[in-house]
Amino acid sequence: MQHVIFVDRMSPEDAPRVARIWDEHDRTGLPEEIGVARRTLYRFRGLYMHVVAARPDLTVDLAEQIHSARTHPSYIEVRDRLATYLTPYSSDCRGLLDTRAEEFYQWSASKE
Fold first, then answer.
1. Which Pfam families does the record associate with it (predicted)?
2. Radius of gyration (Cα) for the chain, nearest Å?
3. If DSSP codes are grouped into helix, strand and coil, which group holds residue 57?
4. Phi and psi for 63 in degrees, rounded to 5?
5. What are the residues whose beta carbons fall under 8 Å from the beta carbon of 82, sequence distance 6 or more?
6. Rounded to the nearest 5 degrees, what angle is found at the Cα of 13, between the Cα atoms of 7 and 19?
7. 52, 3 contact by CB (below 8 A)
């Protein structure tokens, strides 16, 4: 299963508002339409981490699939609402794909 982690900055007190925005967005049907199976949000000392898991049958890159929905009205609405609470982690982040964390190690228990 694919996972993508997006990282931004967020004031800790904004977490309930950000969660509410995502809760409302997740009811639109767009996440399922583009292959998202699960979303988990984390906060840590001013950082916002957004973990997205794909459906097991998704065969295209999950981050690219999310990015391809950027012209969908539901995507635009959630992006604009979140802009009030989230800021890029780095000044060189120009868009969603620039906020994607890079996986550099993975381990799984062996099945015996």
1. Cyclase_polyket
2. 14
3. coil
4. -60, -40
5. 18, 21
6. 60
7. yes
**Taking 80 as the threshold, does the pLDDT of residue 112 lie above it?**
no
CA distances 38 to 66, 82, 84, Å, are: 13, 19, 24
Per-residue model confidence as pLDDT tens digits over 60-106: 999 999 999 999 999 999 999 999 999 999 989 888 899 999 999 99
Tell me how far apart the alpha carbons of residues 90 and 44 are, in angstroms, rounded to a whole number. Answer: 16
Q: Is the pLDDT of residue 52 over 80?
A: yes
Which contiguous run of DSSP H or E holds residue 85? Answer: none
pTM of the predicted protein model: 0.90
What's the CATH architecture for 3-99?
Answer: 2-Layer Sandwich (3.30)
What is the mean pLDDT of the segment spanning 43-57? 96
